[in-house]
Specification:
Length: about 220
Amino acid sequence: MSAPTKALFVLTSHDDLAGLRKTGYYVGEAAHPWKVLTGAGVEVDLASIQGGTPPQDGREESDETQNEFLSDPRISTQLQDTTRLADVDPAAYDAVLFVGGHGTMWDFPNDPDVSRVGRTIYEAGGIVAAVCHGPSALVNLRLSDGSQLIDGKTVAGFTNAEEEAVGLTDVVPFLLADALEAKGATHTAGPDFTEHVEVSQRLVTGQNPQSATRVGEEILALLDA
């Protein structure tokens, strides 16, 4: 019997939006891809940068998929004490999704294990995905030959216009779209807060929370290819 297909979802551990309010991982950006993948039999594990209980943002109690995600026994147990990313063996996974939320802008870009996990999965023929601010994980992600994973690829991510719309242009440590382009990617944008996803080889990126379900669908399509 073959081993189950497995995906790792990486969550931020950063909860402080520059003193303005609390932040964390955006619940819907984990819940909606989880729904797609687990519905197709993919096993999803969670990890966070520091381990323990990750901070949440964007919780919508009217979102039944979020409710299902948070109440799922396997997920709820993991969320009580997530595995620290440094303790993850990426060889166990076929795909990794860097879940968004503003907190990622502080702890994803320079974390060595973000690069280690992403690089190992990609170079083994797996899929690297990120949604909304999750592509902050890609800004400094280098392959074994020293090249940027995103160099020459087309990506989506939270846009400068969307950052301005939520009033956080001067709060975030950098503008995501600009940083992605500075590392050799072509960043494309759909209209603000509408679904927009790019697939570039085995890299899947989504612009915003509205893109989370399709990010899951594109990961699944690549897993099935």
